[in-house]
Structures are given as structure tokens and as C-alpha cells.
Amino acid sequence: MNQAFLPLAGVRVLDFSHVIAGPLATFYLAQMGADVVKIEKPAGGDVLRRSERGPSAFLSLNGGKRCVALDFRTEEGRAEVLAMAREADVFVDNFRPGSLERHGLGYEAIREVNPRIVYCSISGFGRTGPWADRPAYDHVVQAMTGMAMMGGVEGDDPIKTGFPVVDAATGMLGALAIVSALHQRNRDGRSILLDVSMAAASMQLMYSYAVEALTKGVSPRRVGNQGYSGSPAADFFQARDGWIALGANTPAQFSRLLEVLDLGELATDPALFDGAAEPGEQVSFLRAKDPMLLKSRLRERIAGWDAARLEQRLAQAGVPASKVRSVAEFAADAVASGALEPVVIKDGEDSAVVPGLGFRAWA
Asked: Looking at the keywords, is Electron transport present (predicted)?
């Protein structure tokens, strides 16, 4: 990324957030040049400082920020916060709604001393409604919003996504909301209250399925590792030395897959297709008369391939595919290939390597 890309230089942020979602939002702001002042309780600070993952857990979400120990529950601490808020552009918290209001630091109190403030409140279920007071963690929100019933196949137990995906999405939406609000504030000069919730972020992640639920009142079927298209050639298959994910969604991609696998006869097999699976125009996703039979034939052939070799051949043929990697394997491969440009965050002797902002910018 061009090091001159600091669009938020000169923006001051007061960060009252902790753990993941809020700190990630303000971390993005800091990476884009904002001066972020993180307010922590004097006794112990953010709980991530004591994470079993070591200093990198805290640093990866809070590097580049200035940390201040301050007890806002005291009159002296509250006065200090209000003094800092007068000079700030953004105020962020992820306490349960009403918590800061009880200490005289809610939106109205901050707006009174700074009528241009962008105040971002991050919570589990939003600032209003019967769920507003509920505490929340990532896996709890996954359960409540139906996300835990999307993985696996019908009849399986609920399956939590293997990382705090809702926290991550909430942080991203928080940063997007703040940047958008700053643009609006700079046009009209007025303060803005942002209400960012983990529940809403979860629905954004499940966007197309959320649309189906809201429009038709239906939930998606649990289809395991099958691709979103429903193509029987878009799934995970076991190779000789590991697993590979195929994305032959269209007849054209399927035709190229069969060519690589030397299975051209499947395209005209009457047990699978009424007519030849012609490459043709991409007018629809691939469908087969007997999807399970087609998958079985593909599994038999793929079982004899090395996953990395098949990935390479399919990439050359223009078929989306990837060997199933661990996170560490992908990180090493992505850095070596230039697909990922990590950023090193340092704090004294501690350091963390983070994946950056997720996009690149050149001036």
C-alpha cells in the first residue's frame, strides 16, 4: 500500500471500546492515519492484555493507538473525558447501551461539549428495543441470528464458525459507519449518533439468506461444503494427499474441469444429463439429473490426484479451485506471492504482524 494513504490524518478518536469488535473498528481508523486515544480502566486495562495468546492479541487490535488509564466513573475522570471529547472528532464505545449514560458520558452529554462529534455506539443488539440490554459475545450472536444453523448438513448439531466472524464484521461496519459519518459531518457540521450492532452485522454477512428470510420467511437448507451455486461440481473433494475445493459452477467451467480430469464422457452420460453439458453461454449454474452420482464419479478421479498439482492444472484451465490450506499455510503462500502485504505493529519489545486494511491504494 502507498504509505501516503492516510486519509484520516488529523482526525482524533476517543476509543472506549474493548475486546474485539470496537477495537478492530478503531484499529482500522488508526491504520488510515487517525490519532486514536484508547481509554482503559486503571486496574488491568483491556482484558485482551491478559490473553493466553500473548501480547500479540492486544497489539494486533490496538497497535498505533495511544493508551490512557482513566477511571471515568469518578468525577475527576469524567471531567477529564469531557475535556478530551471537546477536542475529538469521534467517540467510540462498545459498552451495553445506557452504561456510559449512567456516568454522564452518553451521546447527549458528549454532544453538549462538542456539537460536531461522531458518536459510535457498538453493542450486541442495538440501542433500542427489548434486546438492547442483553450482553453478547460472537458465538451467542451466531446462535441467535441463525448463523450456527447454516454450517453442516441437515440433522447436524449447531456449528459455530471457527473464528469470531461477527466481531470482525462488526468492526468493519463500525469503521465504515464512522468514515461515512465524518464525511456527512464535514458537510453539514452536525453531530451524528451511530448505532452499530453485532446482530445487524451477522445479517449483513448472511445477506442473500437474510433477504430470503425477510422476504419469504424461509431458512436456507444446510448443504455442508457445497458451493452457493448448488452446482454438484462446486464442493470439497478428497485428493490423494489432502482436500481440494472446486468451483465449477457453470457448464463452461464444468467442461474445462472434465478436460483436466480426462472425464469428457460424463458430459454426454444420459444418467447425468438430458443433453450434453455444453460450454455455451453462461446462462445458468450447472445442474445434473443425479447430482450424487456425478459427485461420486468426480470423487473417484480426484482421489488419484495430488491436491496442489490439481489446483495448478485447474488454475491454468480457468476453473476456480484451491487446495484446502491451514491459515498458516495460506499466510506464508500469500506473502510469498505478493497477494498479501502484511504490516508489522511494534510496541517496545512486543510485535504483531497483521494483514493490513484488506485493500491496497495507490496515489
From this structure: no
